[in-house]
Queue: 3 jobs
Job 1
Amino acid sequence: ATGHAPAQQATPAVRQAATPHATPAATPHATPATGQAATPHATPAATPHATPATGPEGQPQAEPQPTAASVYRNPLRGVSDLVMEGVDQGVDFGGAGPVYALGDGVITNATADDSAWPGGGWITYRLTAGPDTGFTVYLAEDVTPTVQVGQTVTSSTVIANMFNGGDGIQTGWASSDASAAQSQAADANGPVPAIASINFEALLQSLGVPAASSAS
């Protein structure tokens, strides 16, 4: 499926599936078009740990940065017969049931009638907490929104109901203006699966979603 021509949004640093949230690349991202944070999160420790109140010679130390697994939750935990269908311009799944938000955010799109997507579903929300604060997530295709634009959500909020419509769902990072998948940006045209999609799949895996079986 193809969506609208999107505005560019920086991609969160590529994560490794084996760790909850891998260290971001040293090279800073380009600043997103709408002023979203240039980097999605500070570098987290591989394993969360307590930080002493003071360092050597009594110097104060910064608080540890949160990992994705400590802030976000598996958004597909309520889907029955979940099938991982592949990774292309987003991460594709089959099944039916409620889909939750990853974490705290604000809904920026919520429609069941977007002609750019099979099934018509197009829901986006901007994350307002955690290591990917400021980035926008999309959920598309065989979904019916249960939220409205402007609504505040948490990881306990059902944002859509997934139905068996033959197309499944696609989810991933959205463009900065929330008009399309980030992988559809003009400068993102390249190998499939897209880097942004692989990045989002790694985030889902860190939250307990099984890996997609193959690229499509």
Note: The chain has a mean pLDDT of 78.
Job 2
Amino acid sequence: MRANFGALRKRGRRQIPELPSNRLAASGVLMSRSGHPVASGPDVALARTQREAHQKMMTRMRVAAVIFAGASLIGVSGGGVALASASQPARPAKYVVLNCSLKPEVAPRALVMACGDAGFGLRRLHWTSWTSHMATAYGTFYQNNCKPSCANGHIYDYPTRAVLWGSGAAKGHPGWRRYTQLTLIFTGKVRPPVYVLRNGKLVTIRPITQTFPAI
């Protein structure tokens, strides 16, 4: 160090050599007590921005992981409607027919059509189709002739084909549909009587088909 000062005197200069810390201070960099540079000004702002961006990215990744895990759990348990429907085709509506208690049934073996006294209806039904357009079956139509009274009447059976058709909402069962009409096609030689009023007189007819509301 003394040699350096002597060389400067010989050259006629009175300068003090700058140490590295002096050069950093001259450039505007702050120094710590231990002599290490401390970031300031634009450097501090840049470092803070980068740190905040990193924290936001990590937060988003954690949230995404939680959402994905929750969606996977819902899909496994069967409650994830949106998740499941995205990969599975929509199920066709379930079609039913209502009984006298307004309970939905699928392909019943018997169907009471007169809910008040069960005076007529279908039994021994064998279904050949059950679709969204119609349901078809063959079986027996029974009817009480109510002679001398409905309590003491005689029950007659008639072979028939039954066709359920029409579409209506099934109350209490979202996504289900119910048949609204029932057409009977009588296939025997003898058909059930129907009483109609013509010209003021009660006339008996025996049509090949009859259509009823399917409750």
Note: Confidence is low (pLDDT under 50) at residues 12-29, 62-86.
Job 3
Amino acid sequence: MINDVIYDQGGAVFNVKSSEFGAQGTGLVDDAPAINAALAAAGFASGDWPQAGTTQGVVIYFPPGVYRVDTSLNCTGGQYNLVGSGAYCTVIAGNTGSAPVIDMSGASYSSVCDLMIDSLDSMPSVLDNPSTLGILCSRVLGPQTEPEPPAPAPDTDPPAASLAQVNLADVNIRLPSTFTPGEPNSGSVAVYNFATEQVNYHNVYLLADTALVLCNVNLFNFQSPYMWLPTCQQSMTVVNVTGQSSLVSTGLNALRLHGGANANVDAFLSYQNTADPSSGTNAIYCSEQWTDLQWRGDMEGFQSLLYIDNACTDPPVQVQVVGVDLQGYASYTAGYSLVTLSGSSALLGGVLRISPTFTTSDSPLGQLLQADGIDSQVVQNLLMYLFNSAGITCGTATQFQGNVVMSVEPLATVLPTIQIAGPNTGNVIVGTDMTSVNGMVIAGTGTSGACPPASSAGAGAMYFDTTQGIPVWSNGTSWVNALGA
């Protein structure tokens, strides 16, 4: 140990409460200067950007305590490993207003573990400027000690550093609700990821108006106190939410997606607003193109699980979600849809296997999928499972093509719940007893004795009679062969 710093062959551990830095952890004073001094002393802020962060393996350690911070913790432009003593032992009380509690703009190969960021009730702290942004991860153009780079010309690659591997593990974040009704890009955000790729969030509990934002543009226009952020579109791929994670919204969405690919989310999605518990909107809101979205878990309190809309694109373009795989259980508001396409949007390829829970007395029953906007919409190449009488509604502006719908109920019960008003080609609907292929009912295959009543199969249904070795068709009252006999 040298000057309260523990060294070993793997690096160094800097204790923010050491005499060298002097953080108190009482919650009664601003500990941000002391913690930022520890970050600077560790060498993470030294060197010329973007080569800063040469002291790999250094850990900034937070012993148990409540650390009030009135300015952002400067974890920008390098590598950082912030480690607490447990989410309820180490609490960073955010008092930074709209600035991030932890600013990781320009950081790579970094981590935050075993601590809580809290702006709700971090006693004994008295917060006069509660934080509305927990952790900011973003590509950057350079430090604010340098002039802001000019905006790139249209259709050119932006000069932003490519960033990756900013990971969270066993982190809790709780922020107050500040959203403006009708404004989707407002309110508090627990983790805001602007184009930081290949990240992992493990065993996280994120509570804010929007728990997690993954975007390829600065959708909410958040700013770093230390770095210049890009003003144009970036690449945004590969985000994993794993373990016992919860994304909790107090006003808008659990997960916001805007332009990117490869999001794998294993998490509980919940809406919690004590003032208006029935106002939850959409658990996952996709407002720009997204490729490969996977979700496994439970959802409760929202009106829908996935909402796709182009209202936030400028100029308006068709928002396409390609390769979706949503599987889990959902308790949602009756009369709404688990998956909703609004505006000009498309859902292309994937699996919807979501078991909804609502009582049979709810009226009207919820839908599995609803796409009845007035703009061009496409639902194509999906495998959909219908549970508990949840149906499908597509308007005249929606192309419903090449889909397979499977149900745990007889086809006669399933068909009335599927309302397709627009183009309807190449679709297969499978009930427990019969199948409909592109509008033609196939009753199945079996012996003459096993053939279902023609009246229940409906006119036009086909059945292959293995006793006679020929197909027969229902005319609504009886089965007849190709000769009408």
Note: The chain has three helices and 40 strands.
